[in-house]
Amino acid sequence: MNAPTVPTIFAETRRVARVLRSAARQRSSADAARFLLDDMAEDMIDRLGFVRHSPSCALLIGAGVEALAAYLRDGGTEVEADLAANPAEPLTGGPYDFIGVIGQLDAVNDLPGALIHLRNALLPGGLVISSFIGGQSLPALRAAMLAAEPERPAARLHPMVDARAAPALLQRAGWKDPVVDTHTLAVRYPSLERLVSDLRDQGLGNALARPAAPLGRAALARAREAFAARAEVDGKVTETFEIVTLTGRRSLAGT
User: How confident is the model at residue 157 (pLDDT cuts 50, 70, 90)?
Assistant: First the structure.
């Protein structure tokens, strides 16, 4: 029996390009947004402390891992950081007793396969924590994009993982003691352009395999108008980010 074909929604080259671009923006500007990256990294630090997991060797994937890497090294962990490692393929190096993934699983075609590869890269008893923005994110931006092209809206935002489906994915991938939880961040924006800039700063730009053409002048004006229409009395729009965190282990038997 042939294995099921995985739909090609994302382009791996575009996923890599966006995380490398994010790292470059972070290096070149002290004003680059990083609140999502910092939130995910700080949350991972808290979780590691709570479960008292003190790894000897760790792999960190994604941008914004500096604070997490420093925390681990201070505890004596040997840390390997790879901005653009592809979690949807077997990971080289290792095995590791901790893998932290910041913001990359939102743009892989084979999410169940990625979860399996992450588990397989662990030592027995090793821990994975992966955080990314989930399906309840960016309602204001989604509404603006629909208003921009009301008759034939193009695919401009990623399909995102519904946190309610994640537990079944983790069980299917063989994670032990799987935990899925979410929290939200509300951020207020003076303009649509500032929101888009913040997304690019943090490696959340478009990684679709077949991206739509840029918005024309009239469509962009409609998007700006729709976004501004959601403003509160101070002229700012509240945008919401749902952060999904997946936590699990490889069994002590190594399965």
Answer: confident
Do the domain assignments include residue 194? no
Q: Considering only residues 197 and 205, tell me which one the structure prediction assigns the higher pLDDT.
A: 197
Number of domains in the chain: 1
Q: What six digits make up the tokens of 242? A: 């749902």
51 has pLDDT over 70: yes
Whether the CB-CB separation of 206 and 156 falls below 8 Å is answered with: yes
203: which 2 tokens?
């490696």
In a domain, 232, yes or no: no
The CA-based angle 164-165-167, given to 5 degrees, is 90
32 domain-assigned: yes
User: How would you label 33-62 residue by residue, b for 16+ Cβ within 10 Å and e otherwise?
Assistant: bbebbbbbbebbbebbeeeebebebbbbbb
Q: Which domain holds residue 46?
A: 12-135+159-183+200-213+241-249
- Looking up residue 80, the CATH number of its domain turns out to be 3.40.50.150
| Percentage, residues of the chain above pLDDT 70 | 98
User: Is residue 54 predicted with pLDDT exceeding 90?
Assistant: no
Does 84 map to a domain?
A: yes
Q: What is the pTM of this model?
A: 0.92
Spatial CB neighbours of 170, under 8 Å, sequence gap ≥ 6: 115, 178, 180, 246, 248
